[in-house]
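Hi, here's the filled form for the chain we discussed.

Project: internal
Contact: R.S.
Residues: 565
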Amino acid sequence: MRFRKLINKFKSDASNFRKYSTLPICENHILLEAGQGKNTNGNMFALLEEICRNPKWKSLHPVFVVTEETKESAKKRFAFYGWNVELVIRDSEEYKKKLASAKYLLTDNSFPVYFLKRDEQVYLNTWHGTPLKTLGKSDLENAVSLSNIQKNYLMCDYALFPNPLTEAVFMKDYMLENLYRGKILSCDYPRNWHLADEAFGKKMRQTLGLNHQRVFAYMPTWRGTGRKASIEIQKKVIEGYLKELDEKLADDQVLLVNLHFLVGNTIDFSTYRHVRAFPSDYETYDVLSACDGLITDYSSVMFDFGVTNRKIILFTYDLEEYMSERGTYFSIDKLPFPQCETVEEVVQQFNDPKVEDRTLFWNEFCPYRAKDIPEKIIDLLTTGNPSDLRIENAPNNGKENLLVYVGNLNAPAYNEYIAQQIVKIQRDHPDHNIVVAFRGVIRKKEVEFIRQLPETIQFYGLVKKYGFYINELIRLRLSLESDFFYRLFKKSLKPVLEMERKRHFYSIEPAQTVTISRHSRYMDFEIESFPCPKTLEILPRVLVGTIALNRGVFANHRQLHGRRP
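And the returned structure, exactly as it came back:
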């Protein structure tokens, strides 16, 4: 029974993914994933468009990731644009095969927790917006996905940031400083290339039949955390405002509305005269390029549309309520755009052609704006040619890293003791960066633990996925139970343990490790594969009761305070 439980624990998509890791690399395959397969817009669409329309890339074979729910809409959209694109469903066997063998990997979010990049692959992460709202470490209560985002960024060859703010946020709040070994790519988002091209916008206006009308886009952000917010409440509020706007707009004015799909798909736009949904055939930013202005609230689309010199209106009718639920990196008052609390104010701004001076905004949030970014990015990935793109090494303070592994966090007293020990380690090693690693996603007990740590300490969550085959599991289980079997199978298990360590830690290469944990028998093995000195801290029995420590793994390690396991 115990062995069956172990097999079920370790058997996962990771082992299925691993079986494709020996396939030859498909040198011309480029895999693009938008919104974890739930989206066909944005940066990935813009890069796909470059690949499909520019003869320069005719040798590339694009593979676009979808879900069961988005497959048909993606197929329809790409056919509308006349592109020949292979579609794969996320988490399917074909997807794992492509993810493991495609030469070029592109995403605006994160690949699954079982993903492990091969050395021959080239990985670009663009993310999907300039953050106004707090992320990662600055928003711990909503940081469930932080661990996998950290892991993905550590695997990147290139991390794209459209402005210094976004780079600073990711380096700090996803704690990539001194850990990320890839390159920082400072350039505009690929999706903005049509916004920066006035000729394209004029052509889109003609295509959409909007030449003689004043057109604004309305793109509000999603309220709430994830899908917890009430869809019906949001729908009712938005419908009320759309009705007011429709009544107050002139005959030559049009409001194109793009809502979160959970809300937008339930609204009947046929009841309005001046309000219409974004044309579904076209990509969102293609439509946006045809608009005279933008109405939004707290959405990062304002930073993208800001590359133009067109009107931007912030309809912040729930500013106080929204800000009480979610922090921001700076006050929205810092932005040069008019804020409106009522529909009357929105319409007044709609009718006012004045555009505020945007020089400071451009310097801070749009410093790399250009219209040929997609071509330069594909050229960089496929040839290594940086063109005139700004590429730099990631921030590094020059100190070596000391990794402290604390296992699964538990009761408050236990977590408090661990935090105290970490503070002591930091005090004893001022010449090191202290990186604390724990198991699992960030929930209440992890949040409480993290808040006990000094601000200068970085933390890293380990995703609970393993890629072992059954025969390896048998040897691993026997090794966990017996020093004899540990010594017998140590050599044969070494390669797979190093692989799993790479899946979990990737570019984290500590100069020293310290383990403080109640039950870290398997992780003892994984940490043992680090090529550096290791230390084991024994916990007081009065705190954790009887502690089962694997003596064999740490038999030759230097111990803190002279104690031995």
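Let me know if anything looks off before we file it.
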